[in-house]
Specification:
44% of the residues lie in helices and 22% in strands. It is globular and about 75 Å long. The strands form 2 sheets. The protein has a 5-stranded mixed β-sheet with strand order 1-2-3-7-9, sandwiched between helices. The chain has a 4-stranded mixed β-sheet with strand order 6-5-4-8. It contains 4 helices and 9 strands. By secondary structure, the protein is α/β, with parallel strands linked by helices. The N and C termini lie far apart (72 Å).
Length: 216
């Protein structure tokens, strides 16, 4: 069989197209997997914090701000908490408790003794600052907002008490830790804060699963 150079060219183009398609598909699948995992982490956090609503707390999900969305905002007697949920996969080769251990020293989080991160802390501080600024504009006075990083599925070892930590890092199963702070918000002030947050919630395009949680 004899091939013309045009046939060879088309074969090369087709091969390159197939390779590019496979690569693009892998990237899309990886992004989809990461998005799904992150979404499941947010669902877990939302579910764990929901019991506080039955105790009189206020819980908002997926609030849109100029810098991005805040995953959850919790309002209760002990303060206002801006919660960023972070999903982190565990190392398959690490067995036992070390495989699900997140050590927090007040500056960074060390996952399983291998991966050290401070970006989740910076993000939590950024959104809490933006929320505080928004509430100050609405209420006319400064309202402190505590930044929180939620790590579903991880055992948190804190080297500092929550009261001394600039950012609170928790497993959402231990949500009652947020009730251990000194009460700083009374009922009338909580209503003012939630009214301001409801304005944002009405403008925020929420994920479908959040809507079912809020109805509770």
């Amino acid at each position: 069989m004899q091939f013309h150079w045009i046939d060879l060219l088309w074969a090369m183009i087709c091969g390159a197209s197939i390779t590019a398609s496979v690569y693009a598909t892998k990237r899309i699948m990886a992004r989809r997997k990461a998005f799904t995992a992150g979404l499941m982490g947010e669902i877990a956090t939302a579910e764990y914090f929901t019991p506080l609503v039955r105790e009189g707390w206020y819980l908002f999900h997926d609030l849109s701000f100029p810098r991005g969305n805040i995953d959850h905002v919790l309002v209760g007697p002990t303060g206002i908490f801006a919660i960023e949920t972070k999903y982190r996969s565990k190392y398959a080769d690490i067995k036992g408790g070390q495989g699900a251990l997140a050590e927090y020293d007040g500056h960074s989080i060390l996952f399983s003794g291998r991966r050290q991160e401070d970006l989740p802390l910076q993000q939590a501080k950024a959104v809490s600052g933006e929320l505080s600024k928004y509430l100050r504009g609405k209420l006319g006075y400064t309202v402190p907002v505590r930044p929180v990083v939620s790590l579903p599925g991880w055992r948190i070892e804190n080297y500092l008490p929550d009261e001394e930590s600039e950012v609170i890092v928790i497993n959402p199963k231990n949500f009652r830790r947020l009730k251990n702070f000194q009460a700083i918000i009374n009922a009338p002030e909580a209503i003012k804060v939630t009214s301001a947050l409801e304005e944002i919630a009405k403008k925020s395009p929420q994920k479908p699963f959040y809507k079912s949680i809020i109805k509770r």
